[in-house]
Write the structure tokens for this entry.
Amino acid sequence: MALQYDEIVRSGLSRQVADLIRAAILDGRLAVDERLPNEEELARRFGISRPTVREALKVLAAQNLIRSRRGPTGGNFVIRPEPEGVARAITDAATLLVGVGSFGSDEIVLARVETESLCCKLAAANRSDADLARMGEEIALQRQDGLTDEDFCASDVRFHRALVTATGNGPLRLMMYAVIESFIPITNMLIYREHERRRTADSHERIMMAIADREGDRAAALMRSHLDGLRSVLDTALERRAAAASARHSEGGDDR
């Protein structure tokens, strides 16, 4: 096991040990399916306690980098990171950052415009009939009368998810997880009262048809237009929220 055991210092030991093992996995010094030394051996090599080793292993397991197996031939083994697990971590982090105000609405919309326009071009080149069918199913659902706000917003996410899947590009799909699974739901939470469903479904259908015709530039232009319209709706929603908050604050001041 090619690890430098003298690289750690005496603060945050479990995190440092986890980071060292993680680096060894990512750069290939620890191979997939390789068994790690047991807790006692790791503690001896790193010069730390077994509880500290145990905490480090929990961190690695949470990152989907190792898996524990029981039995005489068991132990902790390196596993190949799954894109879905990595993507969930990215999404959780992005959701947290948006929630605490690290990203503004203009930044979020701009990120969507640039990345989803690229996705439209790749989807037009690489889409399958199954990809088009998934997008079509969501558009049909979005046109249904009586659909709840929650169901409409969920369908919106699935439409954009299907579009990204149609790119056929694994790294791009991973990068887009934060946009699809975090930015879109949060945006929808702000604008669902203002959402013009017919206009959204019509925009989705035009984008899908351009992708079906393999006209990437047209699909990208339609996506830009669609998201520019969303920007206007989002601005209106935020202005109304600010006005309502100001009114509540004024009423509170009057009470004093």
Summary: Strands lie at 66-69, 75-78. The chain has a mean pLDDT of 84. Residues 190 and 238 are 7 Å apart (CA to CA). The first strand starts at residue 66 and ends at 69.
